[in-house]
Design a protein that fits this description.
The protein has 2 domains: 15-110, 2-Layer Sandwich (TATA-Binding Protein); 135-317, Rossmann fold (3-Layer(aba) Sandwich). The chain is 34% helix and 24% strand. The longest helix has 14 residues, at 91-104. With 383 residues, it is α/β, with parallel strands linked by helices. The protein has helices spanning 2-12, 16-27, 91-104, 140-143, 149-159, 182-193, 205-208, 213-221, 227-235, 263-267, 270-279, 322-333, 345-352, 358-365; strands at 31-38, 50-57, 60-67, 71-78, 81-88, 115-124, 127-136, 170-176, 197-202, 247-252, 288-294, 311-317.
Length: 383
Amino acid sequence: MTKHVAATFLQACDDLAAQCDALCHERGLTHRAHDAWPVAPDVDGMELGEPVGSTMRPGRVETLHTIGDVGLVFVVAADGGVTVRTHAASPVAAAEALAHVREVIPRGSNPNPNLVPVSFWTYSPNGPQRIRRDVDADLWPSITANYTARTAEAVGRLMDPAFRPGVGGQLVLWHGDAGTGKTTALRALAREWRKWCEMHYIVDPDQFFGKHADYMMRVLLGADTDPMAEMMRARHGLARTSQPPRWRLLILEDCGEMLQPDARREVGQALSRFLNACDGLIGRGLRVLVLVTTNEPLDKLHDAVSRPGRCAARVEFERFGASEARAWLAERDGRKAVPGGGLTLAELFGMIKGFQDAGEQRRSIGFASDGRSEAPPHAPGRI
């Protein structure tokens, strides 16, 4: 009866991921292994096993294969990389299947210097899930002028090619109003650090530091310290690398609410786990940095977050004063008049791209006279 239901479902369903779930249920495949990595652009003809199905979308190809007797391999190829999930009846079989896929689809590098690989993590009903994407990023020198002198100097210390973290588990805290350029600088940082540091973006920080401890430990420890991965290396005769594992940067955007003094009451143990991941016993000895961006003023955050010794860097992304705003506009469109200071980068870009000028934006949405408020809805996307 179960096989009949699964077969009927497969005939009616075009979604390959759903087909994979149905086959796992039919075959009793309760264990899985998961990984993602960049691939060379000329990879073709992957011999992973018997094909079950495939779907093609713009910039994305999904394939499902049977591997071994009953195991399954689900592969998503997109943005110059692959995301692989293997399903088997035992954890050893799932890990062996993943090791086989790594041999068939070797790791490559993206030839486009403007693209940086980033792993996006989220928690699903099947546990932690990772999707790898290449994200466009500017060189830091090309965007330095988009920041005030004090902000550019502080960020520049992190962008210095000679910068290396001294102790694992340190916190990098970026704070400032929306529209001041934190995300743009974050992409540039990923580009500057990509030779020695992997970027891991946590889509759901509340889940990451919440009740799912396996989620946080999977990302913190990484594949290099996975006992199952070590066992697979030994079984396949692969020597352990003599190079130390790469650093990992955990990126947590716009999570100021979690770091406020009442965060313990609002989100349970999330704040405690966050602090432990930075420099507590959990993070001790790991080659991990945590970068947090928030629109909240520093004095609204919990004292334990920004105390001396915990932050490797604290950077305030400032609004432009009147003189710096005039210089920025004059360089780009010759405009001299600026309606006062306190402008965000988003507001300045809005002015030169033909949106309302900053004065009109403030009057139309009730900005305070000093301009200390969120970026206007007319500004371009996240900057």
